[in-house]
Structure formats: structure tokens, C-alpha cells
Design goal:
There is one protein chain. The chain has twelve helices and seven strands. The protein is of the alpha+beta class. Strands 2-4-3-1-5-6-7 form a seven-stranded mixed β-sheet, with helices on both faces. A hairpin with a 2-residue loop joins strand 6 and strand 7.
């Protein structure tokens, strides 16, 4: 006898939500990259496999079954960078805190007013003089691993110090400054580079580094272009170009009204 109703319980809902969350995170990681085209190709191959099985095409089914059988290993090879970014995203301090406490959803470390003023004033100067700069403001995600790739400073944030760090003849200018707990934690830091293919031509390596870090952390990143002098603000994988110093002060004070998602 065929049951009239399908049993649908709490764990079924949880199962669907977990799968949806994983699919969404995978989409975030491959969106706009060459890996997105590969993912579409894999989906089409899987769809073709289902069709040949449905029509009992034994030869094609046998061939494609062998292909699907080694698919997991092939996926790990092809998507090794995306898998690494996914694991970094899932294993970051910020995300682990969210699983054990609701505090991470509501509480963000405050950026001191004098720190936001120093950053905005320095970026105003960098924009006027077309000095390239890359400034990271840590939030909940632990960035000490990236800080260790540069020179640890643990210095007070001042406009003068930031201007000296990014002065073109300074030994610390090439790389990112990481600010954590309202202190300059390190300079000349190396950040992960985004492989997005749909970025404007005016965006260079600093912008890709900003987007790369933003994809695996909740850090706020400010970029000043050496070519155009434009200030770009990056948050959670989204960015806004041609930000004014006043806009930047507003964003650093956690007021994101007017922040246009790109």
C-alpha cells in the first residue's frame, strides 16, 4: 500500500538546511571565478549521466560510471584552492565562535574614534598623492597567521605612522598593514589573492588581495590605488570604489548605509 503522506520531521529540515548552507558557501567561493565554469561543466556531466542511465544506454553508462567513480579525486585536484578557502572559512575563529555562542552575531569589536580618524586622514593623503596603500582592520576573525608573514609592530595607529609605512621608499610599503585591537599589529603582510575574473581593469593586485582576505574573514579592508588615487572599501567580499574620506569614517564606525554591493 502506497502511503498518502511523506514523513517530514525535524532532522529532514535540518538536513535540507545544512545542504543549502554548503551549496551557498561553495557558490560564494566560486562566484565570478574560472572555477564557476568548471562547476557548471561538472553539473552538465552529472545530468548527462542521469539521462543515459534513465534510457538504459549501457555502454555510455559504463563509461560515465568510471568517470564519476574518480570524480571526487578529480574535484579535489581541480578545486584545491577553493577547498582550502572553504576550510579556512569554516575553521576560522569567527565561525567557530558562532557555533558555540550567539555573541558573535551581534557584537563586533569597536574601532576607536582616533583610529578611524587616523586611517581616514591617511587615506585622504594617499588619495591626493596617489600613494598605494592596503589597510586591514581585523574584526572577529583571527589574522595573526597573516601578520606573521610581515613585520610585527604592535604600534599605536597614527596618520603619520601610516604615511611613513606606505611611503614608496619605505621597506614596509609593499604589502598590507593589519590593525587589530586598535593597534598596528604588523606591516608588509602577505594576503591571499582573489582569482575573480570579473573585476574592472583599474583594480590591481592590492584590490585582489583585499577581496581574497575578505572572502575568508570578516575583516574590513581599505585600498588606495597607486594609479588612480581612488579609495576602495571592501567588506565580506563586496566592495565600493571611489569612497570619500567622510564615507570611510562612516564605514569604519560601522554605519554601512549607502554601501553599494558590487
Amino acid at each position: 500500500m502506497i502511503p498518502l503522506f511523506i514523513k517530514f520531521g525535524f532532522f529532514d529540515v535540518l538536513d535540507i538546511l545544512m545542504v543549502a548552507f554548503i551549496i551557498f558557501q561553495v557558490y560564494r567561493l566560486v562566484r565570478g571565478t574560472a572555477a564557476m565554469h568548471i562547476l557548471v561543466g561538472i553539473f552538465l556531466v552529472g545530468l548527462l549521466w542521469l539521462l543515459v542511465r534513465a534510457f538504459n544506454m549501457e555502454l555510455m553508462t559504463s563509461i560515465m560510471s568510471q568517470f564519476i567513480g574518480v570524480g571526487v579525486i578529480a574535484l579535489l585536484i581541480v578545486f584545491q584552492q577553493e577547498v582550502r578557502r572553504f576550510l579556512l572559512l569554516m575553521g576560522s575563529k569567527y565561525n567557530l565562535q558562532n557555533f558555540v555562542s550567539l555573541e558573535g552575531f551581534f557584537k563586533k569589536p569597536a574601532i576607536a574614534e582616533d583610529v578611524s580618524e587616523a586611517i581616514a586622514d591617511a587615506c585622504d593623503y594617499f588619495s591626493a598623492t596617489q600613494t598605494g596603500a592596503l589597510i586591514v582592520i581585523a574584526q572577529n576573525t583571527e589574522l595573526f597567521g597573516y601578520a606573521q608573514t610581515g613585520v610585527l609592530l604592535r604600534a599605536k595607529v597614527t596618520t603619520e605612522l601610516l604615511e611613513n609605512i606606505f611611503f614608496k621608499n619605505s621597506p614596509l610599503h609593499d604589502g598590507a598593514v593589519i590593525i587589530a585591537d586598535n593597534k598596528i599589529l604588523a606591516a608588509r603582510c602577505i594576503l591571499p589573492v582573489s582569482d575573480l575574473t570579473n573585476l574592472p581593469g583599474s583594480m590591481g593586485l592590492r584590490h585582489r588581495a583585499a577581496l581574497g582576505l575578505s572572502a575568508v574573514s570578516d575583516a574590513l579592508v581599505v585600498v588606495v590605488s597607486e594609479e588612480t588615487g581612488n579609495i576602495t572599501f571592501v567588506k565580506e567580499g563586496n566592495y565600493k570604489v571611489r569612497v570619500t574620506p567622510d564615507n570611510l569614517r562612516q564605514y569604519l564606525r560601522k554605519d554601512y548605509s549607502g554601501f553599494v554591493v558590487k
